[in-house]
Design goal:
Elements lengths: L3 H13 L1 H12 L8 H12 L3 H29 L13 H14 L1 H8 L9 H5 L6 H37 L3 H8 L2
Helix pairs in contact: 1-2, 1-3, 2-3, 2-4, 3-4, 3-8, 4-8, 5-6, 6-8
Length: 187
């Protein structure tokens, strides 16, 4: 039986497709509190669309572009409007965490943005300290964000394909559409 997050994720993907993936990853990139876990949605989307390259490419692109758009929005908001996203209750990032990842940027520069985007738990946090660095332009930040998000989405894609292939094997053994059976069994 699927958990409630996975069932919701499959329902969103079934209804809205890659647009749902884009929206959730853009919100995650913008540091907004998690409405639905992005990793769960991504893997559910891959399971829902299948493992063919043509089917998973829009899911992959939606996740990468969505995360980059969300992070770029934070970058621009901090740089142009002197916004402090950490002061909002919907942003689950403390000032101490921003200071910590800010030291990463001070030490390694833009590669730290890409590296932090490839690691769950720190994704997007470098948007705030990087925006305060006058040497970094918005396009350069977006490029570094895109690279890290592509690595992250690639890892999630591998997990999604493994899960989808596992569901396919189980489905063949059971002789039924496993995804539909799991969705109807979910609370």
């Amino acid at each position: 039986m699927l958990g409630p997050h996975a069932a919701t994720a499959l329902a969103l993907v079934d209804t809205y497709g890659a647009v749902a993936v884009f929206a959730v990853f853009a919100l995650e990139g913008a540091l907004v509190g998690k409405v639905l876990p992005a990793r769960t949605l991504f893997v559910a989307a891959v399971v829902a669309v299948g493992v063919e390259a043509v089917a998973v490419l829009p899911v992959f692109a939606a996740a990468v572009v969505g995360a980059t758009v969300g992070q770029s929005a934070v970058f621009v908001a901090v740089r142009r409007f002197d916004a402090d996203p950490t002061s909002l209750s919907v942003v689950p990032v403390s000032d101490d965490a921003v200071d910590g990842v800010g030291r990463w940027f001070d030490r390694w520069g833009l590669p730290a943005v890409a590296a932090s985007n490839a690691v769950p738990g720190t994704r997007g946090w470098l948007a705030v300290p990087t925006a305060n660095a006058p040497s970094v332009s918005a396009p350069r930040f977006a490029a570094a964000s895109l690279v890290g998000s592509a690595v992250y989405a690639g890892a999630l894609l591998a997990v999604g394909i493994a899960v989808a292939l596992g569901f396919g094997s189980a489905s063949a053994l059971l002789g039924a559409d496993l995804t539909a059976a799991l969705l109807t069994a979910a609370p």
